[in-house]
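Name: Lipoprotein
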Amino acid sequence: MTNLRNLTLAAAATALLLGATACGPQGPAEGDGSAPRPAVKNSAGAAAPAGSYGSGGDAYGSGPAANGGTSASTATGPLAVRDDARLGQVVVDAAGFTLYRFDKDTASPSSSACAGDCAKAWPPVPAAGTQPGGVDASRTGSVRRADGLTQLTVAGWPVYRFAKDTAPGQTNGQGVGGTWFAVTPEGRKAGAPGAGTGGLPALSLRDDDRLGKIIRDGKGRTLYRFTKDTAWPMKSNCVGACLDKWRPAKPVDLAKTDGIDPKKLSVYTRPDGTEQLAIDCWPLYWFTGDTTPGDTNGQGVGGTWFAVTAQGKLAK
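Structure predicted for Lipoprotein:
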């Protein structure tokens, strides 16, 4: 019988995938749903002195903030997610301008440290009139600033535009002062080291127009399940020539995953001794026929290969 190692999560800085999923004799039942995502908690915090915030510039937009003089973006409407060739996925406003987060702010509780001249160079994005759009609504929120503006937050982080981004799609604010970074849909710093190629987490969800939310790896590749595998005993039946097209997904650091219940993740030891990532006791693979991040060319191949949901189920 193929050996299955059940591992536990260690410290985030050093954790190898230590899934606690039990792949016991209950049989290869599909997952019964991932743990619900906790709601983002936001609380008002007073703006602190800005300190070093990078280069200056005039604020964009024409509308003054309520009870204050800070100008803010007038591009209200739904947020969107743009795939930047250098940074990976970044959040943009309704006009396509990149949104940023500031390292001197805090996310728990939400608080902005950018005021005065800083807020002229980095105008806060108002929460009023802004909808989640392409960003998970559970990650969006707001914080009341000292200047009276209610500012949009993503995963608790206040978000801003950069005055020197003069056209949609520009990312001139990335890395300014070593403290400003484009914000990802998960609230992370885009392009941060160790987040996966292009700034992606090592394992996350992508909202596919046809299949819904499906699992992808840190390179943006869709991950698949093989219906000829078994979950108990956990076994891969993709061997020999099958592996030329379907490559076993490597185990990941749980601290670098997003949107997937870590308890559903485990490691399968293949017959050759190599380790393969599994979800809900099902081994995962990527398809060599997917040549661009986000491709799903493996979906339905042979009636046996399917993309996977956060619960480990087949995406159909």
